[in-house]
Design a protein that fits this description.
This protein is mainly α. It is 83% helix and 0% strand. It contains 11 helices and no strands.
Amino acid sequence: MKPKKPEPRILQIFVLAALLILGIRYFDILIAALGKLWGVILPLLAGAAIAFTLNIPMKKFEKHYFPNSENKYIRKSRRPVCLLLSVILILLAAAFIIRMVIPELINALALIIQEAIGYLQQAQTWLTENPDALPSFISQYLGQELDIRETVQRVINLVLQGVTGILGSAVSVFGSLAGIAMDTVFAVIFALYLLFGKEKLIRQLKRLCRRYMGSAFTFRLGYVLKIFNVKFQNFIIGQCLEALILGVLCTVGMWIFRFPYALMVGATIAATALIPILGAYLGAAVGAFMIFTESPLQALGFLVFIIVLQQLEGNLIYPKTVGSSIGLPGIWVIAAVTIGGGLAGIPGMLVGVPLAAAVYQLISDDVRRAEKKAAHAGGSSAAPSGQTAEAPEPSDAGTDDSEGKTH
């Protein structure tokens, strides 16, 4: 009698239990290995994110770049030309924001430094006219006599130590910036390769999944990835549109109320509004600081104005542009931003909302199919044997497979 083979599920349970025990036993080594692996794959993930973002305008350009032409030169130039136009579009938007923000910010900082220099000159004049006032004040405050020579020597030593620390920090910062620059270049190159060969890459991944994981798993994986693709695309488009509308409304309102730095503050709020919920308040803090250099009273009025504008935007504009585009209720948007920000900061806020929307859509579709199946089983006879189950279709994920899912 042949021995009975163990069931595959039992083997899977034993393997998972063994991996869990090993993970707990060597937790520190596992965390260190995961951190090193994250540092290695981070440029690849950044490149995939760049490719995904560039793919959105590139597809729009490709639909209008001689779509019915049979000329082989036009067909071969479609992808490079549309990709170049997408890069130019994003660079122009970034250059516009930088051109509006940086010069005004430098002017405001220069004004603050000038005011600080004026106060220092007044303090120097006062000390020149009253040379014994400061030592006597400090001695009275500390309760002991002040040795000027010893104090000056201590200040000099502190300054020398600070300079040494600054030089060491500068070297460290320079090395970090060089590493970030290299990773950025690699990420951009990887993104370009993804965009130029996205159709071939998708076909290869499908073939590998069918060969080693089966057609059923490949179908379900494609269904899940399609929903994630649509949610992330809709989130990026809606967030950019919402940021543009908010920036324009802020600029127009500041012109009406005659607040200074209208263009700069509007551009800043439009840029920071790409961060869900909290972004506009970050831009408002920068704008209030800039206006405060001109007039503290106007800065207070600007804060009142931006709070009212943010309430109108949150209740009228955001639900129409972002909320409806990703299909996620407001309470889950707040939860996604809070959890994502707590786990990964600003990147977590950006990724948390579309990720939660995709999971919400998957759960909603699964519950809907289960209820439909239960209602069908209870209201009619069972389906004939051999009839296949209905394929799950996402409600808003009807995009073509060839439209570049750069995952």
